[in-house]
Automatic annotation (TrEMBL):
A GO MF term: leucyl-tRNA--protein transferase activity
EC top class named in words: transferase
Gene that encodes the chain: aat
Localization in the cell: Cytoplasm
Main location: cytoplasm
Protein known as: Leucyl/phenylalanyl-tRNA--protein transferase
Keywords: Acyltransferase, Cytoplasm, Transferase
Organism: Nocardioides astragali
Pfam families in the record: Leu_Phe_trans (PF03588)
EC number: 2.3.2.6
Length: 228
């Protein structure tokens, strides 16, 4: 099971004080494992923000949260065919997946070296995981995120070959569709047009936090519950 990190010295604002019209909830704190686990369990995730020409650590809870229902992913026939061409692996190349997701060549990149190191630490404690699509012994695509009980908080994904990231997402959905599927949440932060085409829907913040409260008590998926 995941190793409990040292408690965070930081206190995040209570839900009742969050601005109902602003995705950004708080600034500051750090990226230590205990802080990250506390944040995700509270419905927050970190991203760098620039305010008054200064980069700061921001903590977000979207007013409209992007969630992929486990029975709602749009899977085309061509994607099903593509899936047969890849081998799915779990946690065999976590650092490489994060590095690819944070490639400086990506125009929307935000994963700095500090973020990569932080999620690497979280992975080694058993809280962060990668789902990888391989072909011919080569990493073709994948995704990574944080798993707490019934929550899988997807952070980012990448592909080197067509459909590889979608195949990794499909594999993650299949892994989460166990006997506790009705108590699980696959969080993707925001709904983008691309994610909407895959079945991602928006959930109001209050509804998401209610789902989170229930799913936090759900057992981890077996594939993520191995001893560390």
């Amino acid at each position: 099971m995941p190793i409990a990190p040292a408690p965070t010295p930081w206190a995040f604002p209570p839900h009742s004080t969050w601005d109902p019209d602003d995705d950004l909830v708080a600034l500051g704190a750090d990226l230590e494992p205990g802080t990250l686990v506390t944040a995700y369990a509270s419905g927050l995730f970190p991203m760098p923000v620039t305010l008054d020409a200064e980069e700061q650590l921001g903590w977000f809870s979207p007013v409209e949260r992007g969630v992929l229902p486990l029975d709602g992913m749009h899977v085309s026939r061509s994607l099903r065919r593509s899936a047969r061409d890849f081998e799915i692996r779990i946690d065999t190349a976590f650092d490489e997946v994060v590095a690819e997701c944070g490639s400086p060549q990506r125009s929307d990149g935000w994963i700095t070296p500090d973020f990569a190191r932080a999620y690497g630490r979280l992975h080694r404690l058993g809280w962060a995981h990668s789902v990888e699509a391989w072909r011919d012994g080569r990493l073709a695509g994948g995704l990574y995120g944080v798993s707490i009980g019934g929550l899988f908080a997807g952070e980012s994904m990448f592909h080197r070959e067509r459909d590889a990231s979608k195949v990794a997402l499909l594999a993650l959905v299949d892994l989460l569709r166990d006997q506790y599927a009705h108590q699980r949440v696959l969080d993707v932060q925001w709904q983008t047009p691309h994610l909407a085409s895959l079945g991602v829907v928006r959930r109001p913040r209050a509804e998401y936090l209610e789902l989170l409260e229930r799913c936090r008590r759900t057992p981890l998926p077996a594939v993520f519950a191995a001893d560390f």
